[in-house]
Amino acid sequence: MSKSKNIKTSDVLKGVRYEIRGHLANRAVELERQGYEILSLNIGNPGLFGFRAPENMRLAMIENLNSSESYCGQKGIFPAREAVVMQQQNRGVMDVTAEEVFIGNGVSELIDLTLRALLNPGDEVLIPSPDYPLWTASTVLNGGKSVYYRCDPNDGYMPDLERLRELVTPKTRAIVVINPNNPTGAVYSQECLYEIAKIAEENNLVILCDEIYDQMLYDDAEFIPMATVCSDALCATFNGLSKVYRACGYRVGWVSFNGALDKSKELIEAMDLLAALRLCSNVPGQWAVQTALGGFQSVAKLCSEGGRLYESRQAVIDGVESSQFLTLIPPNGSMYAFIGVDTQKLPKFDDEAFALELLENQHVLVAPGSSFNTSYRSHFRITILPDKEILKEVFLRIEDVLNQLSVRTY
């Protein structure tokens, strides 16, 4: 009888992390099974906090269910793709047609498909730090190497453009831009985006722009679509229904290509092949796209003064200001706050150890900042989706843990 051996997994997974749903989240599930109520602030999941997708989106799916039982074309149904085209044209992006739009099972799938179509082993992708870790994971899983350009908290988490330019090598294939940014909430200026586009154009790089939070803006923040400043570089714009339209479970995202289309025929064909291999994306959810993009944009009210997201964001700002340990650059966009800890007051602070203690003792789940591929361990990310009263309680619990850490330090 042969001796039993463990089944080995792929070596490529050694470079893959996704702590947003990692060991801390698994521990939270264990605690819930023991009867504890966990405040899960690790994921931007609007439905978990009572946000509903607009009713007309649900009606659009219901009315088209009879047309949703067959596979559609691999790029997606035409009305959904044409709605993306119309939105881009309304924003001043005139060089995209439905043939350059792919619908996917969320933006996550399309990030993977695009990098698979683009990368050869050893190719480099420039990714912001902090990043949304799916970009790093997808790069690694598709044989690439993640190279990080710093977005300095001392500069409002704006990209270090000089350093970004220095990081380009003959192996560099693409620059990732996340705007509005997850996890920091930074919103990039037109000048910043123009300089990134210029670097891409000079080096024949593809720009991969994650704009899933494009309409989640606060105060005077202005969103500039990356595609509007790209002409001589290929720009892939990723977006979807998950965040702005509060429909994560629909699993509907899209990517549209514009800019240097004349030299991108092979890449578009590769995307078409990969899309065909998975047959198509979720058909019922696609019927909500045209209604979503063409209708009233209810997220604006949520993000304006008096709106729920605006008030929750303010509760986070107030919670940080009342703390003797916390720092924050207020988010101008998205649904997150990337909160810092004063390491002069807590010199031994470690984001993962803190997150675990906060979960075990106060039953609050947050994402450690280093899980977003930072070089420092002094931050953590929370979602601002809970209502303001819950967030007030959260900061009381956070302060309690930090006070205990302070006592231990001294």
Key attributes of the depicted protein:
Aspartate Aminotransferase, domain 1; 2 domains; eight-stranded mixed sheet; four-stranded antiparallel sheet
Output the structural class: alpha/beta
CATH homologous superfamily grouping of the largest domain: Type I PLP-dependent aspartate aminotransferase-like (Major domain)
- Would you give the CATH topology of the largest domain? Aspartate Aminotransferase, domain 2
Task: Tell the overall outline.
Answer: globular
Q: What is the C-alpha radius of gyration, as a whole number of Å? A: 22 Å
Gist?
This protein has helices at residues 23-33, 55-63, 78-90, 106-118, 133-141, 161-167, 190-203, 265-277, 283-294, 299-303, 308-321, 351-362, 388-409; strands at residues 39-40, 101-104, 124-129, 145-152, 158-159, 172-178, 206-210, 234-240, 253-259, 326-328, 336-341, 364-365, 367-368, 379-383. The chain is an alpha/beta fold. It has two domains: 14-43 and 305-409, Alpha-Beta Complex (Aspartate Aminotransferase, domain 1), CATH 3.90.1150.10; 55-294, Type I PLP-dependent aspartate aminotransferase-like (Major domain) (Aspartate Aminotransferase, domain 2).
